[in-house]
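sanity check this record:
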Amino acid sequence: MAPHHLAVLLLTVALAACTATAPVASQAVATASGTPSGGEPTAEPTSPGPVPARPYDGAAVLRAMRDSRRPGGVPAELQTRQIAAAVANELWTWNGERWPQLVIGGSCGPSTCTLEVAGSPAEAAGADLYVLRVDPANAVASVESRDLHGYPARLDGALKAIATEVAPDAIVGLRFASAQWIPSAPGQYLLAYRSGGEERSPGVDLLVDAARRTLLDRHPV
């Protein structure tokens, strides 16, 4: 999908989050269940918070497809009950609640399609964005990438404090750029620290367990 279309998608999500009244709710993510590398927890374990869940069903996704206001909308060949159900099965939210608005857009090639699905809770740190590859002939959807920032923005201070506590040497001279929540591991976050404060700048990614205040992994970028 063209870059300006993606920009429209994220802008639409941001505007929806600003007006909503709903409750708040890289590859290093693949190591979320790995062995901690930061030693023993530095504080007593606490609740990991809400458990991520898949709040959408096929009917809700199909309605969002048909009502899409994205430029180009959603290709007609993707607007089936079977494909909508397959897409819904891949959509997780931080607290298991539906987003105030489900924003969908897509495009198709000769044999496969790309579908972008995004949403954001009110007062979130950012939007959740899923990019899915869809095989319309077999009604199969799989996640190509996830960019998940739909956790409460108020958690940023605590996440930065944990990073300072468990990996002070790794973040010297760097600025907090963003954090991502991990669907398969409640309470774990991937923190991006960058030299310029932007995700594309050089820096380090830290995988932390916020509940146990433990460093699980670090990865220079």
